[in-house]
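ping. complex inputs:
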Amino acid sequence: MSKLKLLSRLRSSPTLHFLFIGALLHLGYSQWFYEKPVEIIQISSAEIAEATTQWAKTTGRLPDASQQQRIIEQLSNTEILYRQALANNYDLLPVVRRRLLNLAEFLELAPEDADDETRYRAATEAGLVQRDGMIRQYLVSAMREQYLNALAPQNIPEEDIKNYFQENMDLYMRPAKAKISHVYFGGLDQASYQRATTARETLQTENLKPETAIEKGDPFYGSYHLSNQIERQIAAQLGGNVARAALKLPLQSWSQPIESPYGYHLIWIEKRSEASEPPLVEVKADITSRIRREKRDAAFEKLMANIRGNYQIDLERKAADQI
Amino acid sequence: MSKIIYLLLALTYTALANSFTGATNDIDPPFTRTEQRQNCENYSPLRRPLFGDLHVHTAYSFDSYVSSQRNTPWDAYRFAKGEAITLSNEEGEQQLKAQLQRPLDFTAVTDHSEFLGQINICTTDSSKLGYWWPYCIATRSDNFYISLLAADYWVNLGVAGTSKEKERSFICSINDCEQADRQFWQNIQQAAEDHYDRSSACEFTTFVGYEYTDAPNFNNLHRNVIFRNENVTELPISTYDTGTQNFPKLWRLLREQCIDGDQSCDVMSIPHNPNLSGGLMFPDPANKEEAENRLFFEPVVELTQHKAASECRFDRLAGRGVGTEDELCDFEQAVADNLSMLGTVFGEVMTDDAAPVSVDQFGRRNMMRNVLKDGLKLQKETGINPFKSGFIGSTDTHSAAPGSAEEDNYVGHLGRRDAGYRNIQDHFFDNPGGHAVVWAEENSRDSIFAAIRRKETYATSGTRPVVRFFGGWDLPENLCSSENPIEQAYQKGVPMGGDLPSSSANKPPAFLVSAMKDPGSPGHPGTDLQRIQIIKGWVDAGGNTLEKVFDVAGNPDNGASVDANSCAPVGSGYTNLCTVWKDQEFKGEENAFYYVRVLENPSCRWTTLQCQAAGVNPLSDQCETQATRANELADQKGAIGNVYDKCCLDPEEQPFYSPIIQERAWTSPIWYQPVTSGK
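pong. complex structure:
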């Protein structure tokens, strides 16, 4: 038969038309209209209650609505990770195999002299992969770890580090520091105060610097010179008044007598640095680690949210009513 | 020539400038740097006092968790740095806010190595099978009685037993305890790293550590194991590795796995509560290796903490002490000599093992002064003094509250078991603990660790006086009035913890001691000092151990006291004291040690303050009437038993307790040995 005649026959055959249109419909349906059956995750009210109780014990309060929702999401995530792990054959991990062998022995699922393969088979046939809590935990952890490793960004752009640094400066800000010396006058009475006042006049008149000025006062059994110390550190040695003065008074001149728990002090502030930003290089490692962790965790949350969308989460009626 | 002079001047200027400014880039410190960090900007060549706590428990410890304590190592470090944390109240509800008046400079979290993994399984993951094991459920229970059962279970399982091989919990048969152990151990390291300030500010230091918890028949043989840096053993070495009553094996394993195993690993173990050891903490060493290991691994002892002080013991009612006549040795003593003293519930002691132990039955070496004396004697006999211990204090808080040793801010150290009214009812004779104080060049791990190793440390009973102690042959008498006493003291003598160099000249050693009162904090002024004492111990020609207490500065009869209604100080003392004291009774052929005890003026004990806050004044003759009323009120709120009766205890009928105390500090000793007396 010539090709022309064959084509003519095809054009005019209802049966062939029927078959051709049917094939098109089938293809189109399976591609665009067919809905795959949705996997269902069922969460019982007992599971929710237990997780909520644990949360409350840890935090000391009951969860609000959004926190309760979060608790349920975590329960869903755990189940999802477990199923994903099974789908990826994580039940073949050595740690799971070891656990199954131990369980088979403990539960006497196989004869005493059985070899490892026999015991392993007995454990899997007994459904222990699905029923054992520890195996479940292994699978969930392994799957989570896999995702986290894959989602952790390898390189954090410099720009991100700088922005994080600026936005969270309160975390990294260095407090003000001072380098001070002091002349000490023992006793908290008027006589000591007067001695300190008279000595101050001498120090100013003779323009004495700390090294020689110290001799004009009483012996002090702590440090005469404190270098690069923050307010708290100065207060620990000379009390709060001196510490506050060290961060406020003018530089390189002798202060009026300032009272401490030990007596009166004339303070010389050699230099002072105000509260400052640390060099980025000092905190870069910390920032990088924080950003990496935050990005990884955010990506993981997004991934799990997407995956949850492929599941139908069924809460037991009682629990659903309470949300 | 002019160039040489110029160069010399420039070098001299640089050296002086650096020593004055504290710049560290060119300074070669007297300790080895074993870690990567920024140099500290506030390096002090003459050292400065740093206050810390090296004995802290969090929810990772079994006895903390069963007491409804839920704070983690991270929370403990935040607390130490001055942040607020939440603690359990007496009903087990996480409602109490706790915060230090002043942050610490350094801390180590030291959770119990025993049961780390098991507590992890019991408390963190409900998908684990072991989580649902009955004793794990009991551990997590909010019911007070059930939690006591759980505590009893853990203690008997792996702490207080006497069998050489310790039994593991059944949990380890159904869960991987080693993996859980590892996880918690890594968390402990991570928390320490997260809170360690490696920047040039050097504001706070953490140490990785844990507590080795052996207590055969409740005789305390515990030690806190503290690592120098982030290089640590793979897992904490516990009594499961050494067996019970075998702490020399702990040292051998630490040597194998840390000291010899990794060049950058260094570690020490710090024993605590010899007062509760039933005399077992300081036995004569079995051999030279054991003596040398003790000297290497245990440079200091925790002299004071929540469960009483271990300097010395004097029973007021008996009129005598344990190897001493020192009446000031009645300070913060436990009546029993073992850990059963913790078992008080609703005001009643629950076991006969916690019965008071008489002076005659009390182990001599439960008290460190006797241990030091016996060490001198052993030195004479064997050539080695195995008991050269310096002193630190700490808290042993099980509420994740390091440094919470403030008498007027004491929230308890045992979670719900001593929260609120339970502290007065069940833990009346306990105390807030003390501080570890080190003289270090900077606030970094290497500097602090080195300070502890050389014993330049002292203990305080909770306040923060600043104490210096030096010994030497040529310390001038007028050192206190010179312009640079400390610099001279370092040049001409040895600081606390040191050994007087041998001297053939038969002249007495001189000791410089200075003390400055606690500067206090806003709203909480420090208490004036009353006096300084030097305690000398020695061995005479007949081999007898002897001791004597010398008052060297201050005034014991200054008449200071407290107001009976407000506890405000009455009278004054000293803001600082300094003296150079010579031992005129010194004999060159006698081994000796000297340490300093600084006493503050009297102040109210925490029990007095809390009783007064409840309307019961121990210092009032209406106390019993007030207590009856307060008990009724407590009963209405659900308390069981008489809560406030102990507030009215008559100190004249008590061997040790007093509503008014004298806070104190104890320096590490300085030792002297004659030239031919060995090590």
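The CA atoms of residues 185 and 264 of chain A lie 5 Å apart.
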